[in-house]
Design goal:
heterodimer, A: 365 residues, mainly alpha, two-stranded antiparallel ribbon, B: 604 residues, alpha+beta, 7-stranded mixed sheet, 5-stranded antiparallel sheet, 23 helices, 23 strands, 39% helix
Chain lengths: 365, 604
């Protein structure tokens, strides 16, 4: 083992990795709580995905992230192919063509495409020198994000489509953007919002947004999921009802409890105390990412780690906000805790890349 | 070159990332505050909602109290009803058995299918009832083949049972599912509870009803029961004890078979009703098993009014029975004296109107005793005329004629004793003196119920003490007998005692001295009585104040025995039966014979 390799291993952020593992284990415990009555297969699969995540983690930290940025275009193209395949040949599961079925395992390609898109975007901005972003950059960046997002919206998976944007926005935020362009962006967003409302969004998605804006309008149908989530969270008190004793969870009143609503389950069984713990871990986790983003000597490392961090930050905030009605319910899982292999793997890829950047923080090129 | 650019760029990048650290921390605190609000501040509300979500309360119907007759015999009780049910999760399996099942139960397949189709209306956690009240042989047949009819189960529910079927139907009444207004008014009554709808079941519903229990189940989102959380057993209602003698009741009802009318027997000393029958009747057990809407419609549109308790709801002119009141009033007001002889030529003219006696050739001259015994009309026309309508009304009121008796069965009607102010108010016409003449023999607008008549004759038998008629004696609460006090204040009527003796003598003569009530005679007992024959007057004729002879009149008899120790009073009305002396009086004789020689012997 050379001096160089020793240096790299020394700089592995074991702290971030430990938090990730702890959160994953907590997630598995909660998945067990809400699925053991019906089947243990969920827990077993999540464990396998977790192990897979660790393997991918080990592989990814060995490759210099700059190589990965260099290869980002072919990776990006490669990540879009399954999205196209899904639109043509995909089967609808839970109302959307989001999963490729491999027998026992289902893979959600959008989870990986969002990382590929963010890496390509980073590469694009790394190559741009100086100056604030102009119309041309906005256009190219828009294309990079727009292609996979359109495919995902067409699936239709509105929630996952949203997860493409934090990387995009975070890069604009870092680079700075001309005020005129901000207006343009707002207009584009509004127009595309109207377009989506009229032509793309399904009725159930519109209903969710309506419910978010007028929560009392529809307590039985769309408001129902939110209400059940709030009941689960609110009925817990400070220490919660105890592990495996959440009545909302165990009686299956909570929707999607092992996936998007896993934090409601945790809140019900471990109360506000449990929420405090999770939030502390996450805050620690996120601040650690941001700290790592401050460290690299290379611009590419800063941009990439920050844009990847923003994906995790975004998903965390959207998820924990939507469970209590601060945001519409949009099918975004809570990274590391929610059941789902693709989500878990993509989160581990992000963590691996960020740790990868930290390992090589002293490298300028 | 590039290196320099990077480092310039880097400082601004790092500043911005530092800002994000603060933004993220503040945002997280912000979200946490919302979690605090939901989990700690609003905790109680959400906990309540979680319970509502999860807990389903299933009511357990209480058994109603039994009803005993005066001799302690059970006359109303409960029996188990076996209801065939199926778990809602397994409804689809029913189609494997449906042919077989419809053969065994002799129920059309369609009725099962209809129930399954309608099952969405009932909550999922309750099993679906396929058929109620299955005969016990079929229950055991199906139970023995449990393997074949796998998902089927029996649910046992107490239902009201009337072992004597239609006997005393009008006294008991019937029960039915609670009406919405009962549910909203009384906390204990819930949807699906049973309440009394008529008769004693209604009057004493509070005592008989008992308290329904409940079970709290934890259910899952589909409404399937996961576990039982808490249970409150129902409390059986209290048992009611009646004054009715069921054997006497049975005997009495025999005489009303295929007739319309009512009979009531009462103990004049304390107001205890011994028997009360009304015809036609109905078997209340039929309400318990499934009673179709069509059955209902037929039933309530039946022009013989089987629901109608003629004893307390039938309003009839009292006819000659009212002469007893005229006599008492005449004596007390001193417009007649017992020895005064008044002549009857067969008719009496008042103004330009002629009023007839029932005996065309007239009775000649009669004293009070003879006038009552022969039920002479003219004698009472003259007495009534001397009294005037206001005094007649005053005395009728003293005896409670035209007024509620206060009997403890709901639905009593008041009847009517008219006077000029009533007529002015309701018919907007002045009172004619001829109407007073008609009223004197109990005809015209006057209406009384048999219970008023028996109460009236009881007051005579008691020599002026008025009692409250009642059918319930008390009830058992926790094995302790609680008595009702109806007879606490027998009301003294301010008429001199000696005058009652003249009237009673006349009534005795009517039965025992070849008077109109002779057929009620019972050797060995001094039966006192009075017959009545009431012209049935249609509305139009009534308005013209003329009597018709076209319709067969109602027969009345009322009386008591024995003269010196009155222990039973009776009133009988048979609709459209003809003369009271020929039709009602013989029935009274037979019933009194049973009472003194039959029922009484059996009871002891």
């Amino acid at each position: 083992m050379g001096q160089h390799t020793k240096e790299l291993i020394k700089n592995i952020d074991y702290f971030t990795l430990s938090i990730a593992i702890v959160l994953s284990l907590i997630g598995m415990a909660m998945i067990y709580s809400c699925t053991y009555q019906t089947s243990r297969i969920f827990l077993i699969k999540q464990m396998l995905w977790f192990l897979g995540g660790l393997v991918i983690f080990l592989v990814l930290i060995m490759i210099n992230y700059k190589k990965i940025i260099e290869w980002s275009f072919p990776v990006y193209v490669f990540s879009i192919i399954p999205l196209m395949y899904l639109l043509i040949k995909g089967k609808k599961i839970a109302g959307a063509k989001s999963w490729i079925d491999f027998g026992q395992f289902q893979v959600q390609p959008a989870e990986f495409a969002k990382i590929a898109a963010v890496i390509l975007l980073t590469k694009y901005f790394v190559d741009k020198v100086g100056e604030k972003i102009g119309l041309k950059e906005l256009f190219y960046a828009g294309i990079i994000i727009g292609v996979p997002v359109s495919f995902v919206v067409l699936q239709p998976d509105f929630g996952t489509a949203l997860t493409f944007f934090p990387g995009f926005i975070s890069l604009f935020f870092l680079k700075g953007i001309k005020a005129k362009l901000v207006f343009l962006l707002i207009i584009i967003i509004l127009l595309s919002g109207v377009f989506m409302w009229e032509f793309v969004l399904k009725d159930y998605q519109k209903a969710r947004i309506k419910t978010f804006i007028y929560p009392q309008s529809n307590p039985k149908a769309e408001g129902y999921h939110l209400l059940q989530s709030k009941i689960a969270i609110g009925s817990s008190g400070f220490f919660g009802k105890g592990y495996l004793k959440g009545t909302q969870t165990q009686s299956k009143f909570l929707p999607a409890q092992h996936t998007d609503f896993i934090l409601s389950v945790l809140a019900e069984e471990f109360g506000f105390f449990g929420i405090l713990i999770i939030f502390s871990l996450y805050l620690w986790f996120i601040l650690r990412f941001l700290k790592i983003s401050l460290e690299p000597k290379a611009k590419a490392g800063i941009l990439l780690s920050f844009s990847l961090s923003s994906i995790i930050i975004f998903q965390f905030f959207i998820n924990c906000s939507m469970l209590i009605g601060l945001f519409p319910i949009v099918g975004i899982p809570l990274p590391l805790l929610s059941y789902g292999g693709s989500s878990l793997l993509s989160t581990f890829i992000i963590i691996a890349l960020i740790i990868n950047i930290r390992m090589r923080k002293y490298q300028i090129f | 070159m590039e290196k320099i650019n990077y480092s310039e760029d880097l400082t601004s990048l790092l500043k911005r990332i530092n800002i994000v650290k603060y933004i993220v921390s503040i945002a997280l605190l912000f979200v946490l505050i919302f979690y605090w609000k939901i989990q700690i501040v609003d905790h109680k509300n959400y906990l309540k909602l979680a319970e509502i979500n999860r807990i389903r309360r299933v009511d357990i119907l209480a058994s109603r109290g039994f009803i005993y007759d005066r001799n302690g015999r059970v006359i109303v009780d409960n029996r188990p009803s076996f209801n065939l049910t199926i778990d809602r999760d397994r409804m689809s399996e029913l189609f494997n058995y449906i042919d077989n099942l419809s053969n065994i139960l002799e129920v059309r397949k369609k009725s099962f299918i209809d129930r399954i189709l309608n099952s969405r209306k009932t909550p999922y956690y309750l099993p679906l009832v396929l058929k109620k009240d299955i005969p016990i042989e079929k229950v055991s047949f199906l139970e023995a083949r449990k393997d074949e009819f796998f998902p089927l189960e029996f649910q046992i529910e107490p239902v009201r049972n009337y072992p004597f079927n239609s006997l005393a139907f009008h006294i008991f009444g019937y029960i039915g599912e609670a009406f919405p207004e009962e549910i909203s008014k009384t906390k204990d009554i819930k949807a699906g509870s049973f309440t009394g709808k008529m008769g004693l079941e209604k009057q004493y519903d509070k005592i008989l009803r008992g308290k329904d229990g409940w079970v709290d189940y934890a259910v899952d989102i589909k409404g399937k029961i996961i576990e039982e959380l808490e249970r409150k057993e129902p409390e059986k209602g209290n048992d009611l004890v009646l004054t009715i003698d069921i054997d006497l009741q049975n005997e009495v009802e025999k005489y009303l078979e295929n007739r319309k009318g009512g009979i009531v027997l009462i103990n004049p000393k304390n107001g205890e009703i011994l028997a009360m029958a009304s015809s036609p009747g109905f078997n209340p057990n039929l309400f318990v098993s499934e009673f179709s809407e069509a059955d209902w419609r037929n039933f309530i549109s039946d022009e013989n009014y089987p629901f109608y308790n003629r004893v307390i709801q039938g309003q009839y002119s009292p006819g000659s029975i009212f002469k007893l009141l005229i006599a008492l009033a005449g004596l007390q007001e001193k417009v007649i004296n017992p020895d005064e002889r008044i002549s009857c030529s067969g008719s009496y003219q008042s103004g330009n109107k002629v009023f007839r006696c029932w005996k065309e050739l007239g009775h000649g001259s009669l004293n009070l005793y003879e006038a009552i015994k022969h039920s002479c009309n003219v004698y009472f026309y003259k007495t009534g005329k001397r009294l005037g309508i206001e005094k007649i009304k005053k005395y009728a009121k003293k005896f409670g004629l035209g007024e509620y008796t206060g009997i403890d069965i709901s639905g009593e009607r008041a009847g009517l004793v008219p006077d000029p102010s009533w007529k002015m108010k309701y018919l907007e016409e002045p009172w004619y003196s001829g109407e007073t003449i008609s009223i004197s023999i109990g005809q015209g607008y006057i209406l009384t119920t048999p219970i008023q008549i028996v109460n009236f004759v009881s007051a005579i038998a008691n020599r002026g003490k008025k009692i409250v008629p009642h059918v319930a004696r008390g009830y058992y609460e926790n094995n302790k007998f609680q008595k009702f006090y109806f007879e606490q204040n027998p009301k003294e009527i301010d008429i001199d005692k000696e005058y009652f003796e003249y009237i009673i003598d006349g009534m005795w003569g009517s039965v025992n001295d070849s008077g109109t009530g002779a057929r009620a005679r019972l050797s060995g007992f001094d039966v006192c009585g009075k017959t009545g024959t009431t012209q049935v007057v249609s509305k139009i004729i009534k308005d013209k104040n003329e009597f018709t002879t076209g319709i067969t009149p109602h027969s009345w008899f009322t009386g008591f025995a024995s003269k010196d120790n009155p222990e039973v009073a009776i009133a009988i009305i048979i609709e459209h039966a003809g003369k009271g002396g020929e039709n009602a009086a013989p029935i009274a004789g037979k019933i009194l014979n049973f009472y003194f020689n039959g029922a009484k012997r059996n009871a002891h």
